[in-house]
Design brief:
33% strand; Immunoglobulin-like; nine-stranded mixed sheet; four-stranded antiparallel sheet; alpha+beta; globular; 43 strands
Length: 747
């Protein structure tokens, strides 16, 4: 079959591919289209750019006077500067002044964060697991430090999200910031561990929750307790196989609860327990079908113990109520009712704050098409006024000052000429008057208040601008002083290319679609480059970078000789209800009509973008979208890598899929199914899945494999042993993805 063994193996696999309908690839089987040294250089690019941004983050340590604080800032690798700030006038003092504050330099260092000791993996014990809970407002990156001390990237943990990672006892893991600063190092133990990332180092979470003193919720006056009862509902379980346990021997089974769309759910009923032991069951007329996986509901008591309140999210997510229950009679009344012809985003846009002193409620709603705040008469159950209004969304409420009757919140889309995703700090009075935007810079803003809230530190950046940290007055947002401006010169010197922001009109010809363009370090405008899109279209958020970070996943792919793009099409979040509703019962849309227009528009003024060679890759919901590109949009996309995709929304977890696809399960689920549409495949597809995925049932990928085989389609498939969700972010998966894209897109 030829003298070149690689060529021989490649031809063998192609024969298998056409006879069986798929082939499990191994790295040596791939036709060599880039030199091994070039591939290694591209995949090691994240390591080469690590810890090369300085003066980019700080944590203020405020003194008791509320007027002075100190912080530590990294100036070069391994070195820090200590700074003291007088907030009254913005004056700055050097580290020598720490003795005056009673904080010697060494104690200050201990106070400000962890001592990050980098160490390599020295042993491999029994299989185990790690769970990371990221409580920061920014994504973090995850690396395994192998036996040679190399940092192998395993993806990241999104801001406010959680991630489980399969590991082994003794394996060492590094967590870094977006700009490469080392945040923590942890080591796998014999038993699975959970770690909380909160900016103060990393803390091991409690393995068992604290026991409540009693079942249910006791009234403030102690006269009664309320709790829920429900009939037992059988819970679906998923079984996966760990085929190659590290300890050797036979495969091991893992069985876990996994509720899917359409599965039966418990229907809880409130019960009021009196001191004398009597029980009063609260009629379910107004909460007959709640969306709850465990049968639990939460109660909030009025201070006078006459009523308790709870939230009713009706299954299907088209009806949401805040209900009040009379503690003496069990009578139920409606305080707030929201309805939608599509869905209510109950996880992000049902915030509320009780004003018990005035008998009022501050409530969040999208009823006018944008996420805003409303003031309710809690006793009458009627709205009094709309507090915020306009064609922009309230994104997060930070603080309610009942004494001053003020609400402090983050909002976006406030200025016409600025990226509509940029967060800004705002303040408004309960009656809707006195609205003020307190941050100013053209970027995404994160704020941290002084203990007495007299000042705040504003950290802002863009995808194409390193962070600036400013001290501002809370009263009017006025600038006290600039604390730091990040220095990214070493990062740029390492070959990292600043992303380019780009805006184009979407499918309606009027809505702006925002995204970024990433070029390789060896970019030559005289050449033509294939275009690869990093896709994630989950309706729960928006995903194109809005803050400065290395975006190392994008850059590692770009280093292979690609132009990498990412944008947020219609159907994603934070752009108003109409923009969001495109996803309703229509996850297969994934914003593709907007994405294709965006890429085409960018290429009109960038002749180095070769639109005859366009690929796409993504994981999880992005894996579903990546494959969908070759089912419905193969006129444009020629290659796709789909990692751990939720390819059929009937196979994935209930809470995410019923939110966007609705309940009961209907024909819309089939219309968005990559399994049902597998026969439409055209182009080059690589499917990757982790055999130990507990986030998306691995059977979702296996059923796609079966459907493609039945349809006689040629495709590539790689299950990765001993790996969970995000298998394409493992070193092997990343290399496989890179070689696949290069093989089919490079000339």
């Amino acid at each position: 079959m030829g003298k070149n063994p690689l060529t021989a193996v490649f031809h063998c696999t192609m024969l298998l591919k056409h006879s069986l309908g798929f082939v499990c690839l191994t790295l040596p089987c791939l036709r060599t289209v880039i030199q091994a040294a070039d591939l290694d250089a591209a995949l090691s690019f994240p390591k080469r750019t690590e810890n090369k941004v300085f003066r980019d983050r700080l944590h203020a340590n405020w003194q008791p006077d509320g007027k002075t604080f100190w912080y530590r800032v990294q100036t070069v690798p391994g070195k820090h500067e200590f700074v003291v700030i007088d907030a009254t006038n913005g004056s700055r003092k050097s580290a020598a002044m720490f003795k005056e504050l009673g904080l010697p330099g060494n104690e200050a260092a201990k106070t400000s964060g962890m001592n990050i000791e980098l160490r390599r993996t020295r042993r491999t014990g029994e299989p185990s697991g790690l769970k990371f809970i990221n409580q920061l407002d920014e994504d973090v990156e995850l690396y395994w430090i192998n036996q040679e001390g190399e940092h192998l990237r395993y993806g990241g943990v999104r801001a406010g999200a959680e991630r489980e990672q399969h590991t082994f006892e003794g394996h060492v893991w590094l967590i870094t910031s977006r700009t490469g600063e080392h945040l923590a190092v942890v080591e796998g133990a014999a038993q699975p561990q959970t770690f909380i990332i909160d900016g103060k180092g990393i803390a091991k979470a409690r393995t068992k929750p604290e026991k409540k003193p009693e079942r249910g919720f006791r009234s403030p006056d102690g006269s009664c307790v309320v709790f829920t009862e429900h009939e037992k509902v059988e819970r679906r379980q998923v079984t996966i196989v760990e085929s190659t346990p590290n300890s050797g021997g036979q495969p091991k089974l893992k069985v876990f609860d996994y509720i899917k769309p359409g599965d039966p759910l418990p229907k809880p009923q409130w019960v009021i327990g009196q001191k004398d032991g009597a029980k009063l069951r609260v009629t379910r007329d107004l909460y007959e079908n709640p969306f709850t996986e465990n049968g639990n509901l939460d109660a909030v008591w009025a201070p006078d113990s006459r009523e308790f309140y709870f939230n009713y999210n009706q299954r299907g997510h088209q009806l949401y109520r805040v209900l009040a229950v009379n503690a003496e009679t069990g009578a139920v009344r409606t305080v707030v009712e929201e309805t939608s012809r599509t869905f209510i985003d109950y996880t992000k846009k049902t915030w509320r704050h009780w004003l018990h002193g005035s008998g009022e409620l501050i409530w969040m709603s999208e009823r006018d098409g944008w996420c805003h705040l409303y003031l309710y008469d809690a006793k009458k159950g009627t709205p009094k006024l709309q507090i915020t209004k306009g064609a922009w969304p309230v994104r997060e409420v930070l603080h309610v000052d009942e004494a001053k009757k003020e609400i402090w919140f983050l909002a976006s889309g406030l200025r016409d000429k600025e990226d509509p995703y940029h967060l800004h700090l705002c303040r408004v009075n309960f009656d809707g008057s006195g609205f003020k935007q307190l941050t100013d810079g053209d970027g995404n803003h994160r704020v941290e208040f002084s203990p007495n809230r007299e000042f705040f530190i504003d950290t802002w950046s863009r995808a194409d601008m390193p962070p600036v940290m400013e001290l501002r007055r809370s009263s009017d947002g006025g600038l006290v002083c600039v604390l730091e401006k990040a220095d990214a010169s070493a990062l740029l010197a390492a070959g990292w290319m600043m992303p380019e922001r780009f805006v184009a009109k979407g499918r309606d010809g009027k809505t702006d679609i925002h995204g970024v363009i990433v070029k390789p370090s060896h970019f030559d405008p005289a050449k033509k480059y294939p275009v690869v899109e990093n896709i994630y279209a989950g309706p729960h958020g928006a995903f194109a970078p809005k803050e400065f970070g290395r975006s190392i996943g994008h850059h590692a792919i770009a280093e292979l000789g690609f132009i990498v793009v990412q944008m947020d099409g219609m159907g994603t979040n934070h752009r108003g209800k109409a923009f969001h509703d495109v996803c309703w019962k229509n996850l297969k849309d994934s914003g593709f009509p907007d994405r294709k227009l965006w890429i085409k528009e960018a290429a009109k003024t960038r002749p180095w973008m070769d639109l005859s060679r366009v690929g796409v890759y993504g994981g999880s919901a992005g894996g579903q979208s990546a494959m969908r590109a070759l089912l419905d949009h193969h006129d444009f996309y020629k290659v796709a890598v789909a990692d751990c995709g939720c390819h059929d929304n009937r196979m994935d977890k209930i809470w995410w899929n019923e939110q966007w696809m609705g309940w009961p399960v209907d024909e819309s689920y089939a219309k968005s199914s990559n399994v049902d549409d597998a026969h439409k495949l055209q182009g080059h597809l690589l499917l990757i899945v982790g055999e130990l995925d507990t986030n998306v049932d691995p059977a979702s990928t296996m059923q796609v494999v079966a459907a493609l085989q039945k349809a006689g389609k040629s495709f590539d498939f790689m299950p990765i042993a001993g790996t969970g969700h995000g298998a394409a972010e493992t070193p092997y998966g990343s290399k496989l993805r890179a070689e696949f894209l290069a093989r089919h897109l490079q000339p």
